[in-house]
Amino acid sequence: MRKNLLIAVKLTILVLVLVWICASINRDDWNTLVQQEKNWGLLAASLVAVLVAHVISYLRWYVFVHALQIPISMTEAIKFGFLGNLFNFVSLGSIGGDLFRAIAAALKAGKKRPEVIASVLVDRIVGLLGLIYVTAISLQLYSNSLSVTLDWIRRGTLIGSVIGTICLALVTFAGHHLPIKLLNRIPMFGHTLHRMASAGMLFEGRPALVGILLGMTAMVHSLLTVGMYLISISLYAETPSLAEHFLTVPPAFAAAALPLTPGGVGVQEMAVAKLIEELPILPAGFKGLIVAVMFRFELIVVAVIGGIYYFFGAKEIKRIQIESVTHPLDK
Question: Is the pLDDT of residue 12 over 80?
């Protein structure tokens, strides 16, 4: 009862945030959006790009768990990914769904549960690092002058890229020198923490695996940014260029990961609107907030697909739980 009440409260917050976003768009902009001609083909292409981006992110996690020899199939990885995406909308930020995905996948992993939980954490870190790379490269390659805000983001992502690269290099080429065995000395949880850290050490001596995961991450964020751009050109005759979308959209995705609202709703939309206003030249009549709201609707459609997976997979998840107890695995 208490759990259902908590979910109801979070869904209420989600609805209120969506209403607040819609109320932030003035009547003239809404009238323009409703009355102006739209390119439905481009909107459909945008939805496909967003859906494919999500699937690639789930496959990225599958590549990692497969390398860990965790008994999860590609189909199950995609299903768990969609379930996690659905639960993003009843948790703060975009990390709550990862927790559900970890729990659901752990039911299938038997005695390798610490490794599967670690795989979700590592997958999240790789995703954020890839987002930093995409943002940093986009800002570095942009030839025009940047606003103060975008210039700070450029510097911050550049520093983050350097730090992330150093950490990946240490794990990949010198992981055996890192003192992760000291984690075993921590009372109660030391052994579990050591096994989780050991999962991250899977990158040691496998630069190709690191490259594949980062490449898939770049594809995910690039497709999402292209999806936002397709929405822009489907609604407006004059829009910021694709390169300018790459300057503003990825940082907004990073802002949405902050645990402030369910699924990052509101944070992402406001971040897109504000960052687009930082562009040197903004076409007359273009509203980044409207584009961001349309993008949110597409994310909700993808979440509905996750809901379909949830209802069709509920019995299978229960079966997995029973099997994990009666036939534990320890590979």
Answer: no
Which residues does residue 93 pair with via DSSP β-bridges, in sequence order? 262
Residues whose CB is less than 8 angstroms from the CB of residue 140 and which lie 6 or more positions away in sequence, other chains included:
154, 158
Q: Considering the chain, what is the average pLDDT of its residues?
A: 77
Residue 12 token pair: 């209420």
Name the phi and psi angles at 24, rounded to 5.
Answer: -75, -15
Query: Of 67, 70, 74, 58, whose CA–CA distance to 209 is shortest?
Result: 67
CB 104 within 8 A of CB 85: no
Predicted confidence band of residue 262 (pLDDT cuts 50, 70, 90): very low
Assigned token pair, 270? 């406001």
Asked whether the beta carbons of 23 and 98 are under 8 A apart, the reply is no
Integer CA distances (angstroms), 36 to 192, 284, 311, in order: 57, 15, 38
Rg (CA), the chain: 21
